[in-house]
Amino acid sequence: MNSIISVSGLGKSYASGHVALHSVDLDIREGEIFALLGPNGAGKTTLISIICGIVSPSVGQVLVNGRDIISDYRQTRTDIGLVPQELHTDAFETVLDTVRFSRGLFGKARNDVYIEKLLRDLSLWDKRNAKIMELSGGMKRRVMIAKALSHEPRILFLDEPTAGVDVELRKDMWNMVRHLRDTGVTIILTTHYIEEAEEMADRVGVITKGRLLLVEENDALMRKLGTKTLTVHLNAPLAALPEALRSWDLTISEDQHDLDYRFDARGGQGSVPALMAALGEAGVGYHDLSTRQSSLEDIFVGLVHSGDAADALTTQGADA
């Protein structure tokens, strides 16, 4: 698949000495949903702002559809739509006028057919004559998306698209983003909702302290870094591990009715039969087993808070 955005050696330093980005390399594929995860201050907004032409890089290059964002800024900005986290728009304008005006800012000819379709796709057509101030928070966010898409960009950046949105509307937004991707728009989103990335993204990037720790296919990330937990449901409470089981990475639950065993989801499942045999030899009876796959949130938290995250990923990349 072709890359529609290519970032090479991108860095951003400020006069204060703060380094917001450290030599970031990233390729975003045409037609994918790419989720950028990271804590506050990780560099997400700086990276997006540079690609969108809002902030100047200190070093490195960004190509959008093969064009340099600095030397060919007019075309690259036309290729991009940005939905910021903050809901800034004219409260006294109608939905229709706001979206039409945004299209005109990019020098696009008026196209009422396209604007009507856009508003219908975003469930805004019935609100077209309503003033922005009359809309709910969720509807205002849809208007921001309509504004960003008004000039028919090939790429859409969504910065925290469901922040402050209730669960039901969040799912509607997920469906809308998938629909946009199906129409050929490349979607890049930042989010604090781990389940959002896990639910929607084709690929996930994790950034912290200005460094891009990894970029992986969603499923591959789960396979590469995920762990599974096997829970053994015991026939009788177990106060302490028998001597024969102490070499295993086992944890007794608080009520003493379960044993938890964590193993590598990539290949560690072969140890499970050996554990079952060891339980039998130790006289520990059980009546059921269950497993739980680690979530993207488990992986994310582990990466961001691990002091050797970068080294660990380098090692795992070499093993892959």
UniProtKB/TrEMBL annotation:
Keywords: ATP-binding, Nucleotide-binding, Transport. CDD domains: ABC_DR_subfamily_A. Coiled coil: none annotated. Residues 5-234 form the ABC transporter domain. The keyword ATP-binding applies. GO terms for molecular function: ATP binding; ATP hydrolysis activity. InterPro entries: AAA+_ATPase, ABC_transporter-like_ATP-bd, ABC_transporter-like_CS, ABC_transporter_ATP-binding, P-loop_NTPase. PANTHER family: ABC TRANSPORTER ATP-BINDING PROTEIN. This is ABC transporter ATP-binding protein. It comes from Sphingobium fluviale.
